[in-house]
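Lab notebook, bench 4. We co-purified these components, and the gel suggests they stay together. Before we commit to crystallization screens, I want a quick structural picture of the whole thing.
Request: model the full complex, all chains together.
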Amino acid sequence: MIYDCVIIGGGLAGLTCGIKCAKEGLHTVIISGGMNSLHFSSGSIDLAGYTEKGAIVKKPFEYIKDLIKSNKEHPYTKIGLSSIKKSIDFFIDELASDNIPLNNNGEYNHFRVTPLGAVKPTYLSQESVYSSKGKEIIKSKGKIAILNFKGFRDYYAEQTAANIKNHPIFQDIEITVGSISLPYYHKTEKNLHEFRSIDISRIFETEKYLPRIAEEIKRAAGDAVAISLPAFIGIKNYKSIRQKLEAMTGKFIYEIPTLPPSILGLRIDHALKDRFFSYGGEYIAGEKIVSGKINKNEVESISTLNEGRLSEIKSKYYVLATGSFFSGGLQSRLEGISETIFDLATNGTNPRNKWYSKNFFDKKSHPFLNFGVVTDKNLNAKTKEGKAIKNLLCAGAIIGGYNPIKEGCGGGVAIASAYKCAELIAKDLKK
Amino acid sequence: MIKLENISFDHCIKCTVCTMYCPVAQATHLFPGPKQSGPDAERLRIKNPELVDSSLKYCTNCKRCEIACPSNVKIAEIIQKAKWNYVKIHWFRPRDFFMSRTDLVGSITTIVSTITNFVVNLKITRAFMHIFLKIPFTRQFPPYAKGTFKKLYEKKISKTQRPFEKRVAFFHGCYINYNNHSLGQDLIRVMNAMGYGVDIVKEKCCGVPLIANGYIEKAKKNAKFNIAHLSKTETPIVSTSSSCSYALLHEYKEFLEMDNSGYISRLDYITKFIYDEFSRGNIPKMKPLGIRAAYHSPCHLERMGGVMYTLGVLKKIPGLELVILNSECCGIAGTYGFKNENYEISQAIGSALFKLIDNANPEFVITDCETCTMQIEMNTKYKVLHPVTLIAMALKE
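Here is the predicted assembly.
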């Protein structure tokens, strides 16, 4: 049995590519080894946040247009501006149809707040993180209350408050900190210290305790007009829960991500999987692709390893969306950087002591974040002999030649490259 | 001393993704979740076995934590080992004893199946079982068949298998042997249609219920017996039970620490075997079914990477409109859901799946696992079929 497209890796890139392929009517399977790093992400999509020199990018598409002219090796250059724009629209549409609307600030970036209170530029956010109403409140300098639940250990309201006060947009805004208690939960025998964000989000999801939580919020927030809560006000129903809480409290509700697991990221993950299934895609969880056979610049098959036995899987096209070091797509060894499935060519070639900067927060960032698989202009992976592999395309963090942290573009590259791969595959197979 | 090969808990990066996907932690806060019960607590237990936490008993061993783990930590295995290695129970537990002795109970009840099925469903029996054996009153039991599949095979089927040159050995498991002969017969029809004659070898219960109830020594005895007999065969071996397959392929080696290399390269869960045959072009003639069915993927099949093959095979059946349900645990977890103390949790875990099935509005539900079948049939209005049964239905006479 031969699939049209097998996608190795079920993260942001793999899922986006899978949705587009399945929507095009291709027999598509995603093979994912363990849950993806959306579970550790902000849940916002950064398109282009910082310039080469570290300045904040205001208009990401304009910036990308210039980048394409000057940087031939950047994945954005290979994808092209029109595909990048189409991919973002596609992503917004797909998530909107799963009840996770994503907002943007027109052609401008907006800011999101990290768990520790850093303020970073981004392009797409859930409505609890960016909305025109929130923008107005900041503009009119309305008082903000940053709240946490008593005893919850994966988020520190005081730290967030102290850090965001350093940022220019919050400078003249009055910010208070407070804590609220979680209403008695009938099956709880454990201390709130043991709760993670996921446990509390499930309590919110039942909607049973909203009136009491709303009372607590009103008490702790005083006369603040905007409230920030750790991001766990529901999973699937978060939109309506937030609306209800806003109606009950009469205040604007904002979400700040907690330490992992990230509920903002989880919502995106669930919505993407729902979309993929709705187009008939197959998602195989907990399976690792360990090797692949390449013959005459074409992938013949890939293999899983179970109980010491290899099983072959065949497809017309393969998409490598295995992520970078954290997700296991790349590996660093004493002798160098390697790609873990096909042993493809990587750009991680310089001597080991040049892979990183000695200063962790170096403005120039770490060179290893640039490492990845070498691709040709159509995102086809290249072998160590420098030959492009016809039916193996790369999407997301496995692609070399850009720095997702320094440039603030990880989400954008993942979505755009995934969409581009799917476009190319669909075009070829539908010929 | 810590064995160096047993330090997978050290690969845990504390990301808590396993707890997000743990069906038990979702259903009750009494279970602190796989991360805390597994890799976190293992450090403490190694230091001092008295630090074993009683909440371990809530783990169903569904293995969804291991599927979710991005760092390859054998979370469920750590919990299972801790459950039985640190706690030794010496007193006699009648319910757990009989529930895990599927062979013993099965071989007696199949002799008097009509009476057993009648008596088990009497309200008075159920009340007695509820009070004295702590088996939930409302839990449905699978009916026992008349005689065993093994006898049926020896008497009627074996001679029909002689003409086939290509052979396959069939590990039928307890469910087919004592409860569902027709699935065994479906398997034989399908294999025959693909040109394979079916042999059965001597076997005992694979040991899954024994492991789940803490009878590790007895499980090892059964494993030794099965390993000896399966290793004697020279043909491919198939099993129609996802959990038996998982035990034979994985648990024997990793959990019971026994050598199953004598057959491991030849044994497959049935849909993998059929998938490979289909891929080689050996597809029997099938007529269009004209059925709409929803597919539920059992946890253990997911863990062993088998869902892909089941879907691949199902998609080859003409006229089968397939709705693939989002992956959710059904909650029964073998004998877990047959116990009073777990019943509420078990039903709560399954509720999400039952809703999905109702929304899909199929004619049938398809799944690979026998206890998932029991749970779904009890909680929804649908009949549940095994993938092999669907192929058998599609075969031309």
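The first strand of chain A starts at residue 2 and ends at 8. Worth comparing against the SEC data before the next meeting. The longest helix of chain A spans residues 410-429.
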